[in-house]
Amino acid sequence: MKAEILATGDEILTGAVIDSNSAYIAQKLEEAGVEVVRHGCVGDNVETIAAILKEISTRADLAVVTGGLGPTLDDITAEAAAKAAGVELVFDREAMSCIENFLKTQKREVIASNKNQAMVPKGSVCLFNFVGTAPGFVFKIGVCLFFFIPGVPYEMRRMLADGVLPWIDKLQKERSFSLVKTISTFGLAEAAVNERLVGLAEEFPGIRLGLRAKFPVIYVKLYVRDKDEDRANILLEKASESVLNKIGKCAFSTDGKSMEAVAGSFLCREKATIAIAESCTGGLISHLLTNVPGSSDYFLFSGVTYSNKAKIKILGVAEATLQKYGAVHEETAKEMADGVRRVAGATYGISTTGIAGPGGGTGEKPVGTVCIGIAAPDFVEGYRFNFQFNERLRNKKKFAITALDLLRRKFLV
Amino acid sequence: MKAEILATGDEILTGAVIDSNSAYIAQKLEEAGVEVVRHGCVGDNVETIAAILKEISTRADLAVVTGGLGPTLDDITAEAAAKAAGVELVFDREAMSCIENFLKTQKREVIASNKNQAMVPKGSVCLFNFVGTAPGFVFKIGVCLFFFIPGVPYEMRRMLADGVLPWIDKLQKERSFSLVKTISTFGLAEAAVNERLVGLAEEFPGIRLGLRAKFPVIYVKLYVRDKDEDRANILLEKASESVLNKIGKCAFSTDGKSMEAVAGSFLCREKATIAIAESCTGGLISHLLTNVPGSSDYFLFSGVTYSNKAKIKILGVAEATLQKYGAVHEETAKEMADGVRRVAGATYGISTTGIAGPGGGTGEKPVGTVCIGIAAPDFVEGYRFNFQFNERLRNKKKFAITALDLLRRKFLV
Predict the structure, then answer these.
(1) Is the interface score ipTM higher than 0.90?
(2) B336 CB within 8 Å of a chain A CB
């Protein structure tokens, strides 16, 4: 079955609101084994909506349409649907009682505009809304079965779960399993990841490959759809092994985890703790690590020490080191990492000191230079990198993930 | 001029990624005086993309297409465009030198797949990419002028600003001035902001109002278009004043600044410095403050003190305070803020201590509870809030911006 998704509403069309509904619905339809082939969006205009509904009605087996079912004047989806099908709008008692019931739970009165919400195209079937006034409806136009549901995300999700997906399940005679596996990688550019995976699709017929960049991490996604769930799983495992062989140490998770989550799992498993001394990353490493629920078990302390004074006073960096090498140097990074580890009494210490830009670069140490220190009991090392993203936030992100990756490569892999 | 926006990519079609590009482009086109009439999205398939390009080529005056220009196998937009127009792909020297220049700045080699990126439909004009390898191109199919630009948001935004919008400006014969003013607000929900601004459009005909949420900040956008620039400016100023009156102290910038940028400007102006003691925000306040270029002038130190030990050792919080009140308390927050201010020798100190969740909540201090301390010379105060977002990252964001907002309300307003 091929499906399309249509979002209606001026607020989405003009970009005032980002349409997150369509992605949500697409995921749920894919999970239900329905292939989504197109998304669309048009504004609050009867003619425009009717025109695109007609187009969809010639192409898709089913469609989910969000928005325009509310009580206000610009809620005109039912009218557009009736127009597209060439039928009239009729008053639906079931829809009306659904509205009345909801308003009763809210201790609100039924007003005239609510009655408009019970007007649906002749021949449609009502979908109940338990969390809002707008009832949905199911209606066939041409070869396509349309599900009209509200645009308010909360109401949309509820009606999708309660009304739309069970309906689709019944329609599917032959259910196929749709699986996906995500491998997280860091250290190779998107093009380089792609280059390494050339030939994978031919090697594993039935596997669909997708790359997704969430700077600076590249996720490799493997999709498979099969009527036999075991066969799908085996194929996915084999393809995944092949990807891991090709990507090597740059792959850091086989279930799409973030770098900070991988670091967190490692620390939990080892019953180890960590402390961070951040200069150029300005708190980002700490923010990332503490985004992971339960991080208070292993995250002890981070000192964001922009000034030399703070590096000396809080982390115990020697004034002589700063004078001899400067703030951005491997030796300083080492003392910072070891210092913060000792101050906090942590197993591991990580430090960053560098130049995120846009100012502060020199010939010898241009913007994008970062020195990273990694410390553990009986271990301390300093590293230097130069990245060139020419944007402060991107440099910070690249520095932060590189620091966590160094810890991973040294102690996890 | 009527425009359509098309996003390509399996990751968007399947809902793995929410398409925020289309909303961004829609806003920019609207600001440039172009009416956006439809958005679409299809997957990484040559036939499908070619088919929708053909459809658009019969309807729209111009179209912006994102995605599928990368170096990988599923980057097939150029091929689809050539197919839709019935022309061949040709090697574009200008595109290739653009790719080579970019890779040189990155100290990266040109690999075979990069060369594919320089293959564009015959008759198209290259759009330079200064921040990535994927060049864009402009190409007419049917009656419609298509702008093909990358899907990576960072590259897309840059190419839109440098290549697409200037081109569209030239196309517009009768130039009308399109102005926009953005007022940043914090502390009112989107519905509440909307409620306060009811009637604004009637009060100021010619002004179009848009709300944009970037959690937890709500941006009020005022758009005006007029052939007379002075008249447009005067109308915008009047409408802006009216918005400020209606929103009150919750408005914190009249030029769309972020809270951290507003705090930074204030500190610069006052030649003051700041230090942060973060518990539940885990480094986010520091990360936000240090995202502002030049923040090293006023940002001295942040201690992310998850553990009580760190609160005592680094910030000098009294053990007795922690024993008497616990970590999450106004008194502890006060000592943290004052402590970090003294340790760092800063003008101002800010602290946070609370429960971001999902675990750690109690009946008295549920998830979403945060205590914030604000310290200055001769001033220290503690505050308590309870927010209920049930999501760790949202709680962290709300806590962090609330802390900066308290500083603003106390010392800036």
Answers:
(1) no
(2) no
